[in-house]
Amino acid sequence: MFVDRVDAGRQLAARLRGICGRDGLVLAIPRGGVVVGAQIARELGLPLDVVIPRKVGAPHNPEVAIGAVTQDGTTFYNRTLLDFLGLGEDELQEQVELQKKEIKRRMLLYRGRVDYPDYSGRQVILVDDGIATGYTVLAALRWIRRQFAPGELILAVPVAPTDVVDRLGEEVDRLVVLLVPEDFYAVGQFYQDFSQTTDEEVITLLGRPVRE
To answer: How far apart are the first and last CA of the chain?
Structure first.
C-alpha cells in the first residue's frame, strides 16, 4: 500500500538508485504518472518530460480499454477483445481521431510544444502511477523505441498485475515494479490517497507557468 503518488515515487526512486545513469531521462504518463515521475526525477537528479498515449475504449462502454493510440497516430488493439465484441478498426476510427486531438491538446497545454529535444540513445525511464490493462503503457513503450531508439528502456511503476508484468517485461530492457499482487482489481486499491491529479499540477511539476 502506498500513501499517495509522492510516496510511490520515493519508493521507486530508492529502487532505481544505482540503476540510472547520468544520461537518464524520466518520461511520465499524465496525469497521475507525472506526480510519481517528478518525485523520481527530483530524487535522482534527472530531467522530466511526458509521453501521452491515450486509451481507445469500446464504443458503448468507454471504460473498457480495447487498445491505445500514440502521439504519431499509431494504434494498438486487443485483437481478442475486438473479435469478441465483433468490432472492426474502422468502427473505432472516429474515437482514435478524437484521442489524437486530445493528445495534441495536452502536449501543448503541458509542454507548450509537440516536438521533443533530441533524446536519442539515452537511458529512458517510463513511469506511470500503476498499470491495469497495460495497453497505454505498451503504446508508449513502442513509441519511445521508434522515436528515440534509447540506449536502455526501463519501465518503472508502483503496481501492476502479474499477466501485464509478464507481457510488458518483454518490451523493455529492465522492469521495476514494487507490487505484483495476485488479487488486482484497480490501481487505486493500492493507494490510501488516489485523488485525481489536475492539469495545473502537471504543468507545475513540469516547470511551466500555469496560465490564469
So the answer is: 36
